[in-house]
Amino acid sequence: MIDPNRKIAVHHIGDEHKELLYKLAEEHGTPLFIVDHQQIERQYCEFASRLPNVQVYYAVKANPDPEIIRTLFDTGASFDVSTMKEFNLVYENIKDMPENERLEWIKNNIIVANTIKTVEFLEELDRFSPLLTFDNAEELKKIKAHSPHARLILRIRVPNTGSLSELSSKFGADPGTAANLITEAYVMGMKVEGLSFHVGSQCVNFENYIVALEICSRILREYYERTGQKMRILDVGGGFPVKYNDSVRSIRALAVLFNEELKRLFPPDIMIIAEPGRFLVANACVLVSKVIGKAVRDGKICYYINDGIYGTYSGLVFDHIKYPILSFKDSEVTKLSSVFGPTCDAFDTLTLSAELPDLKIGDLVYTENIGAYSISSATSFNGFEPAKVLHINIDRRPID
Ligand SMILES: Cc1ncc(COP(=O)(O)O)c(C=O)c1O
C-alpha cells in the first residue's frame, strides 16, 4: 500500500534526492535539518517574478539561520525583524559597509514589523531612524519617547479567514480608528509613511488579500482627501501560501489577482513591500531523523524517533502544520503506526496515523517542507538538543 501522505506531498523529493539525504544523514548524524540554498533562491525568484512591483522583506522569524539570511541578502532581499537579535543577524551582512552606506541600507531595507516593541529595543533602534509598525495609541507614545527618529507604518486589522495561523485577534488597528491614529502621530510630530496588514500565515483564502487591499486603498484615499498628502508605502505583509498539498492554489494564481488589484487601487508611485517568511524557506528544508525505539501498544506499532514536538516538529503545535513522516524504504506493505518524539512527555506525539513500512531501530525517516516555523521554535527540553543544520547547494562554502 502507498502511504496516502505521500500522494499529497507536492514538493516531494525524488529518488535521487532521497539517496543524497540518506547519505548526508549517515555522514552527519541525525536529527539532521538540511537546507537547500538553491531552493531558497528559486522561491525568492518565483516571488519576485510573479510580483515584480513588490520589494521582498524576508520575515526572519520564519527561519533565522544566519546562512539563510546571508543567501537572501545576496539574492537582494530586504528584511522584517522583530527583536534586536534578529536585527543583528541581518546586521552581520552589512557590518563592513562604510557607515553612511550602512545607515542608508538599514533605512531602506529593514522594517520592524512587530507592532509591540520593548522600550530597550526602541532605544537601541533609534539611531538608525528605523521603519517601525504600530497599531495603537500607547505604542505611539512609547515610540515617541524612546525612538523619536522612527518612521511609522500603521498596521491595519484585516480578515484572516481560513489562514493557518490567525493574527488578527492580536494585531492591527480597526480601519475605523486609522484616521485618529494618523492624526495623533502627526500631533506628536511623527509622520505615518504608510499602511501595513497581515492576512494570516499560510493564507489559502485569497479573498483576504483582496479585502485587505480594498480597506487600505480606502484609508489612503480618505487620508489624501483630508490632508492633500499621499502615503509612500503599502506593506502587504506575509501569508503567501506554500503548496504543502494539492489543494493549495499556487502563487501564480494569487499574483494575477494581486497585481490587478494593486494596479486598480493604488497610484503607480507608491512603494509596495511584502514580508514573506514561510514562502521563501518552507520547501527548502528537509528533516531526517532516526528510529530510536519501537513498541506495540494496543496492537498498534509505535515508533520513537530522535526529533519531536520540542524540537524541529514544534511547528505541529505553534504553526498548526501536520507534517507527514515518511520512510526511505520503498515497501508496498505499510501499517498504520504512531510516531512519537524522544522526550518523556506524552504530548510529544507526532502522529497516531502514519502509514509506514516495517521499520527497525536505527532506520531513518524524513519530513519534507519543514523549513518554516520549525527549527526556529525548537528547544532543548529534556536534554535533547535541536537538530544539526546542514547547508547544501551553497556557493560560498563547499559542502562539508
Ligand atoms: C508581522 C509579520 N510579518 C510577516 C510574517 C511572515 O508571515 P508568513 O510566514 O506567513 O509569510 C509574520 C508571521 O507571523 C508576521 O507576524
What secondary-structure arrangement, pairings included, does this model have?
Layout: H1 4-8, H2 15-28, E1 32-36, H3 37-50, E2 54-59, H4 66-75, E3 78-81, H5 84-91, H6 99-109, E4 110-112, H7 119-125, E5 131-134, H8 137-146, E6 151-155, H9 178-187, E7 192-196, H10 207-227, E8 233-235, H11 251-265, E9 271-274, H12 278-281, E10 285-297, E11 300-305, H13 315-318, E12 326-327, E13 335-340, E14 349-356, E15 364-367, E16 388-392
Parallel strand pairs: 1-16, 2-3, 2-9, 3-4, 4-5, 5-6, 6-7, 7-8, 8-9, 11-13
Antiparallel strand pairs: 1-10, 10-11, 10-15, 12-15, 13-14
Helix pairs in contact: 3-4, 10-11
Bound molecules: pyridoxal-5'-phosphate.
Pyridoxal-5'-phosphate is lined by residues 59, 62, 80, 113, 167, 198, 201, 237-240, 275-279, 372.
Describe what this molecule looks like in 3D:
There is one protein chain. Residues 1-10 have low confidence and may be disordered. The protein has helices at 4-8, 15-28, 37-50, 66-75, 84-91, 99-109, 119-125, 137-146, 178-187, 207-227, 251-265, 278-281, 315-318, and strands at 32-36, 54-59, 78-81, 110-112, 131-134, 151-155, 192-196, 233-235, 271-274, 285-297, 300-305, 326-327, 335-340, 349-356, 364-367, 388-392. The protein has 2 domains: 4-34 and 284-392, Lyase, Ornithine Decarboxylase, Chain A, domain 1, CATH 2.40.37; 37-281, Alanine racemase (TIM Barrel). The chain is an alpha/beta fold and 400 residues long. 43% of the residues are buried. α3 (37-50) packs across α4 (66-75). The longest helix has 21 residues, at 207-227.
